[in-house]
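Hey,
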Amino acid sequence: MTDKSQTAEKFDLIIAGAGAAGLSLLWNLISSDKLSNLNILLTDLSFTPKNDKTWCFWDDANLPETGMIHHSWKDLEVRAMNREIREQLQRYEYFCVKSSDFTEMILNRAKNDPRVTLIETKINGFRSTDQGAMMETDSGDFHANTIFQSVLKPPVTPHTRSDISLKQHFMGWEIETSKSLFDPKRAIFMDFDVPQNSGVTFFYVLPFSINRALIEYTMFNEVLLTAEEYETELIRYIELRYGLDKNSYRITRREDGVIPMEDRRYPARLCQNVYNIGTMGGVTKPSSGYAFTRILKHSKEIAIAVENGSPIPESLASSYRFRVYDMMLLYLLKHDPAISVQIFHDLFYKNGFDRILHFLEEKTHFGQELKIFSSVPYSPFFKSIWKMKHRIFSGA
């Protein structure tokens, strides 16, 4: 699909990749009155919206449109160590956006904006030029002053090595039942009361109505499962928790994915004038896999820099303090799954949910963090500090 002639090879700005990062950046750019003359190219292999991802978050401050929100919950529940911990959020609300809604809304806006050219093509690479940068595709080469890319993973170098690397991998089913089984006002944030045989494992349940919910099976380890293994665990969980055999519900949608969880520092640029954004820019929080609100925030910061003609913000990395926290928890997730489940239990059992979400958003101060860490077993954290001391004390 080409909305404008493919003969146009020079643009002010290219966005390579129409995922959450590329689309949110595009939205912020075309929403600016100061950028009325900006000539933008958006490229990806396909612009067809796919209902294959669900992005959850608890801060909508940087969301392009609240109309994108599919559902929200004020009541959250965590299950661990045979205990159900429930709380109503006061500060936050837990939101859900479907990737298809996000994509369709932004692309519809872009198609009607004369500043934007959309080209479906395979992206093969990037290189710097004297005038800016070039994107190499199956449809030819395209030039721009600046390129933002979220399709190619930056190469690993000695400066970007990772000491700890895990994968958060998952499969989810959205199901419909004939029975009224779900509370659409309460989401199961994490359910650890399942077999922990191959790393930290949990389910979460997002009810959209009394008979429709997304149920997702998630693991933190290094080895992906086969499709049949994920499906077997989903079938088992649905029967255990809701008394449904596989003939008692209908699967209306499937999703799966893999999110990197590593202490690697991603470079801000792939090469001169080519900036990494989204997961490729290292915005994913290493210890949890959350990225959506960090992507939205970074996109807004980039758009403001383009507006003002100021340097592009090169990093959304966590502060040193939170990088240390992430490294400690990553170490425990990898080497001591049992104590990790205990830590998650104590975090939510001994602290308010709002405080924990505030901490995960990295908005707490050091005094609040000390109180949180005092509520969980602290000797494993000292062990992780000792094991990771070369990394921690070299500046993380």
